[in-house]
Each structure stands twice: as C-alpha cells, then as structure tokens.
Write a structure and sequence with these properties.
The complex is a heterotrimer of chains A (389), B (196) and C (96).
Chain A: E1 2-6, H1 8-19, E2 23-26, H2 33-44, E3 51-54, H3 58-70, E4 75-80, H4 81-91, H5 93-96, E5 101-107, H6 121-124, E6 132-135, H7 139-156, E7 160-165, E8 173-178, H8 181-188, H9 215-227, H10 229-244, E9 251-254, E10 261-265, H11 269-282, E11 287-292, E12 294-296, H12 300-307, E13 312-317, H13 328-337, E14 345-351, H14 360-374, E15 382-385
Parallel strand pairs in A: 2-3, 2-4, 4-5, 5-7, 6-7, 10-11, 10-13, 13-14, 14-15
Antiparallel strand pairs in A: 1-8, 6-12, 9-11
Helix pairs in contact in A: 1-2, 1-7, 3-4, 7-10, 11-14, 12-13
Chain B: E1 6-13, H1 18-31, E2 35-40, E3 50-58, E4 73-76, E5 96-100, H2 105-112, E6 119-123, H3 125-132, H4 139-150, H5 155-169, H6 176-191, E7 193-194
Parallel strand pairs in B: 1-4, 4-5, 5-6
Antiparallel strand pairs in B: 1-3, 2-3, 6-7
Helix pairs in contact in B: 1-4, 1-5, 3-4, 3-6, 4-6, 5-6
Chain C: E1 35-39, H1 49-53, E2 59-62, E3 65-69, H2 79-83, E4 89-93
Antiparallel strand pairs in C: 1-4, 2-3
Classes of the chains: A alpha/beta (389), B alpha/beta (196), C alpha+beta (96).
Chain lengths: 389, 196, 96
C-alpha cells in the first residue's frame, strides 16, 4: 500500500494500469480525456501489455470493445457525456451478449446547451441499457470501484460503468491509498469470459438475428442476469474489504439508525451531505444520509430496509428526468417504497445541473424544507435546488 | 465546516502555475500525513486568463466536495490581477492574504482596503523568480511564502516533498531547474514580510 | 412437426448459437418463385464461378467438379445462370 495524491482521472488510469487489460479502445472527450491520455502513456512506456486502439469515435470504441470482449479479451475504456451518448447503440449490445467490459465514465452533462461540467444525465441516459452502474464519492472509491468492477463483471457476465463526477472528482487531487500491482492482479484473478468467438474448437455464432420466437426469451435471460448481480457485488465488495480494509455496499448508510429525516444522494455530493449531517447532528437534529452507490442493479431491498421507519426523505437527482414529474433516482426510490408499510413522506430535488456548485447551505436548505413539512407546511413534491427563479 | 479544515484560494493567470502550486502544496501536505484536495477552477484553460485554484487541508479525511467560497488563505500570484479581480471575496476575519508584489503589506492593505482582522503579507515573488529561476514563475516562491506564514506544514518536509515532485515533473530537463526552484522557495521563505 | 422451442432458462448465454452449421436446418429452397437453375453438364467447364457467386451454399462441388444444385438451399435468384460465362446454367420453370 502506498499513499499518493491522485485525481479521479489519475486514480482510474492507475487502476487500469494495474488491471492490465488485454484491449482498450477509446476516443478522448473532456473531462475523461486524461484517463485515456495517461493510460496511452502506460502503453507507450511498456508498463502494460494492452492492445490500445485509438478509434475514430466513441461508437467505434464501444464496437471495438464489444468485439474484443466477444473474442475473450479483458476490455476497458473511458468516456463522458456526448461520448457515452454516441456509444448508446452499441451499449445495448454488450450486456445482451453478456460480455464483461468496464467503462470509466466521468459524469458530464449532455448538450444542449453545451456544457462540460458535472451532472449525471449522461449515465442516466444509459439506465435501461443493461450495464451495471456504480457512482463514486471520491478518488479512493473511484480507484477501488474500477478494480472491484473487473471481478464483478466477470462473475456476472454483464458490463459495468464506474462513474465519477466531472471536475469535482475527475480533476481534484485527493489522497488515496493505492494497492500494489500484485495485490490488484491477485484480486482480479484470471480473466473469465462466457465464450470466445475465436475458440475454433467450439464454433459459435455471436449476435445472430433473433425474431419473435426467441428474442423475448433472450431478453428475459439478460434481465435475470441483472437480478442476480446484488449478491455478486456484495461478495466481491466484502472480499475487497477483508483484504484491503475498504468496503462500500450497494448503498451506504450514514447516521441513519436513529434518524427521522434523510437525504438520498449519489456521487460526490454524498460527502458534502455527510458533513451537513454532522453539523446538524451537533444541534440535536436526527438526520442522516443514504448514499446510493449501485444505481444498476437497483438496490431495492437495501433501500427499503434503510428507509423504512424514517419519516421524511429527500431524494437528490443530479439529472432532470424530463418526464414531467420526478427524476430517475426519485422515481426509483419512491417506487421501491410502495411495497413497505411504514414508508416515509418523500420529496424529490433536482440539483447541480451543468456543474452548478452544491454547497453545504444548499443541502441544509433541503433538511430545512423537510422540517417545514414536519411542522405541517406543504412543499412541492419535486423541487429544484439552487436554480434562479 | 470541520474546525480543523483549512481552505486556500490561489489567484493567477493561465500559465503562471497557480494550479501547479496548489498541486505541489497538496502533495507536500499528503507527504506529511494530511488529507487534501487540490483543484483548479473547473473549465477550459486559457493562457493569460485570470484563473483560480484551490486547496483543502485537514488532519481528517475530507468529505466536502463543494466549491470553496470562504477561504482561510488567499494567495495572489500576479499583482496585475488586483485591478480586475476581487481577491478578497469571501475572506473573513482571521483570514490571510499573501500577495506577490514589491509593495509593503501596509501599502497593500491601504490599496485594497483590507478590513482589520485579516492579515496581509507581501513578497516580491516575481523578482525572486527572475533572480533564481531566470523566468517570471512566481508560483514556487509563493509556496515558500505560504509555508512561512501558515506553519501548516513542516518546512523541511515540504521542501523534501516538493523537490521530489519537481524532479519527476522536470524529468529530462536540465537538473539545475529543480535546484533553482528550490532556491526560490527558500529565498521566498526568508523574504516574506508581514505587517509590523 | 414443429420443434419444441426452448424456454429462457435453457438458452445459451449471450444469445449466441452454440451449435456449428445450424444454418443447414434453415431450408431456404422454398423461397423459389417458380424458376430453378439446371446444369447442362456437356457445356460446363467447371470454372466454379457459380460456386463463388451463389449467395447461399446451393452449388454442389466435389473433386473440383460442378455436380449440380442443392435445391433445399437455392432461392432461385439466378445469379449462377447470369454469371456462367458459357451459358451452361439455365433458369427453367419449376414444373420441368
């Protein structure tokens, strides 16, 4: 173990170096460019054995990665925003073919208006594509999660996106503890692949036409694969914790046990929320945070167990769902709670779009709103935090 | 928020090394066992344009990920910024202002109407940089000033760390570029002036 | 007649086909719309252009000799007749 200073971009690139994937096909885009730039230097310096494919677009990157994975290679790439959106068509193919690939995604908003800063709209756009999605709070978690994701994807035979907030994490230098190269190799183990199109002794056809008679059955199988991921993620996470002392869970509860109000949030804002909770706790307020790390698979059971018995909950979305109501995290949480009896009163907050800074006082305002509700006042079911009226 | 949290804001122009200074200081702090953040003002980088970079330092893990609005310390790398940028923004009583200028702290306080309770320090970092490094690169001398004024880090340990980082950064360049930068930091550490 | 279709739990992972040569089971010969190719063995020089151009695998070749057609896989497209440089393949009405 060594203590170093790394931005999330650097941390993820270092994780990729230690993973030493067989193939990386990538196209640069702000703010994830550095990941690929740093990794290409590792390739040039001979620090990895990776076949690096500098493709002409993200659509090609996703295609080359999927093809390489079908050939049985361990594959990784990195992208952001419009790049992830351009991959979209291919991203539905990868999990349907049950191929394990890890994308390091830096969460940047989608155009228009054009903007390079953080929100989660790019990965939210991929929420139904069949990829696991892990949102991280800091550089350390970004590094750890990329390493964990290799194991998880190769046990689940589904791909995963590990995403970190643009600039707030991608370009912020932080203290992290890096594992030794051998520890990483030992943890991820031999590459596991469901099949290989290059296995001439066992010839197969990958991606054939599949009409009314079988398409549905294949999709049902893919859905089942996602349903089976929570125990896999927990097992890999637990083993990581036992070996290296850091464990994250599908969700993280912070001072929830005796709380009556909580914020549910993903990404770097979870850290800020914990600070706010500590401050409010000093004034005797019973508040807590639930950080959602795994958005796909949706951790329904963990969320319900965590929020059952709470009285007031605010769900923070760093994306606008454009459904005329609430955004993705809010609607998922609300839908999950439907099946429990003692469910909290729940409100949605859209925040931080296009990189709008989220200060402690903004999150304090959310708790203040919940207090207003507690005292009998009415507030909107879905709110916009930090936008000018 | 956390009481032991120190927040720093650097003002410079694109290319003057405000970002590098924040990174070097952050890395040095890690080497002394602290937790840190170092980040530039997010966005496209443009040579010559006014930019900001930031540090957070703490003995405990830092969980805050919001921008820094009320820094404890402000450093100004380029005195020409003082005319257009409000470098005092968010700096509260007990705060520290360190400016690269040939002027005295007293003159600086009058010029910027710095309210009482904020400490002002000055240093002719550009002159030191010209005399040592041979270029107007005021960022490393300002690190010396920061060490002198704040005592956040052990100066010798900070020097060791920065030397190591600079050797890595300037790998392949003439070796004297590192020793000249180190000399600049040490000179700046001596020359930084506070008010009487 | 109809093959029992497998349920989702019985399918191989990743929607792959794990059986080589399974396209042989898919007989496309019933796509022909009334015309089929016939070979005039006397004219044929065994240049095998028909074999190269056939979009399926309907040309029977053995010992480098053109032997005729697998009508189970011939869609009656007529490309073989069109490509044959000496007119040894003729498209004729199906009844003959």
């Amino acid at each position: 173990m060594k203590v170093v200073a790394k931005t999330a971009n650097e941390a993820m690139a270092e994780a990729m170096r230690q993973i030493n994937p067989d193939v990386v096909a990538a196209y640069p885009i702000t703010p994830s460019t550095e990941i690929v730039q740093i990794f290409s230097r590792f390739v040039a310096d001979g620090e990895v054995d990776t076949e690096f494919v500098p493709v002409e677009s993200e659509h090609s990157a996703a295609s080359a990665c999927t093809g390489a994975a079908a050939a049985g290679a361990r594959v990784m790439t990195a992208t952001s925003s419009q790049g992830l959106a351009l991959m979209n068509e291919v991203l539905f193919v990868t999990p349907a073919l049950r191929l394990p690939i890890v994308i390091c995604a830096i969460n940047r908003t989608l155009s228009a208006p054009i903007n390079i800063h953080c929100d989660h709209s790019d990965t939210m756009d991929q929420r139904d594509s069949g990829w696991m999605q892990f949102y991280v709070e800091d550089s350390q978690e970004a590094y750890d999660s990329v390493i964990q994701a290799v194991r998880i994807t190769e046990e689940a035979f589904l791909p995963a996106i590990v995403s970190a907030d643009a600039f707030i994490l991608s370009h912020s230098l932080q203290r992290i503890e890096m594992l030794e190269d051998e520890e990483v190799q030992d943890f991820i183990g031999e590459h596991k692949t469901p099949y290989s199109v290059l296995d001439v002794d066992n010839p197969i056809t990958v991606g054939p036409l599949d009409l009314q008679d079988y398409y549905f059955e294949h999709k049902r199988g893919e859905a089942e694969a996602m349903r089976k991921t929570p125990p896999i993620i927990k097992k890999v996470d637990r083993e990581f914790g036992e070996r290296f002392g850091r464990e994250y869970g599908l969700i993280e509860e912070y001072r929830i046990k005796d709380a009556n109000k909580a914020i549910v949030v993903m990404g770097s804002t979870a850290g800020t929320a914990k600070e706010v909770v500590d401050t409010l706790r000093q004034d005797g307020e019973k508040v807590g945070v639930v950080k959602v790390k795994a958005f796909r698979p949706w951790p329904r059971e963990d969320i319900n167990k965590s929020l059952e018995g709470l009285e007031y909950v605010a769900v923070m979305d760093r994306a606008e769902g454009m459904n005329g109501f609430g955004s993705p995290l809010f609607t998922e949480v609300r839908s999950s709670l439907y099946e429990i009896d003692k469910r909290p009163d729940i409100y949605g907050y859209v925040y931080g779009l296009g990189g709008r800074d989220v200060k402690p006082r903004d999150l304090k305002k959310v708790f203040d709103d919940l207090k207003k509700v507690e005292s009998g006042k009415k507030i909107e079911r879905v709110n916009y935090l930090g936008v000018r009226e | 928020m956390a009481e032991d949290l120190i927040e720093i804001r650097w003002h410079g122009r694109g290319g003057q090394g405000a970002k590098t200074a924040a990174l070097l200081f952050g890395e040095a702090a890690i080497d002394t066992g602290m937790f840190i953040q170092a980040f530039p003002e997010y966005g496209p980088e443009r040579t010559g344009a006014p930019i900001k970079s930031f540090n957070r330092l703490s003995k405990k893990p830092i969980r805050l990920h919001s921008g820094i609005t009320n820094p404890n310390i402000v450093l100004v790398l380029d005195p020409t910024l003082l005319k257009t940028i409000d470098v005092l923004e968010g700096l509260e009583k007990g705060g520290i202002l360190i400016v690269n200028t040939h002027k005295s702290p007293k003159e600086m306080r009058e010029e910027l109407s710095v309210e009482p309770g904020i400490l002002v320090y000055t240093l002719d970092a550009s002159k030191i940089a010209m005399e040592t490094i041979g270029m107007n690169k005021p960022n490393t001398p300002m690190l010396g000033a920061l060490a002198r004024v704040t005592h956040i880090l052990d100066f010798d340990k900070m020097l060791e760390s920065i030397e190591r980082k600079l050797k890595k950064k300037f790998r392949g360049k003439p070796e004297e570029i590192v020793s000249k930068n180190m000399e600049a930091i040490k000179t700046a550490h001596k020359m930084t002036k506070g008010e009487e | 007649m109809a093959e029992k279709k497998r349920g989702w739990k019985e399918l191989p992972i990743g929607a792959i086909i794990d059986e080589a040569g399974s396209s042989e089971k898919f007989k496309t010969g019933d796509w022909r719309e009334g015309r089929k190719p016939v070979l005039n063995k006397d004219k044929c020089t065994n240049c095998l252009l028909c074999w190269i151009f056939c979009p399926d695998s309907a040309i029977i070749v053995s010992n480098n000799e053109m032997k005729g057609f697998k009508y189970d896989y011939c869609k009656g497209c007529g490309i073989c007749a069109n490509q044959c440089p000496i007119g040894a393949i003729e498209m004729v009405p199906e009844e003959e």
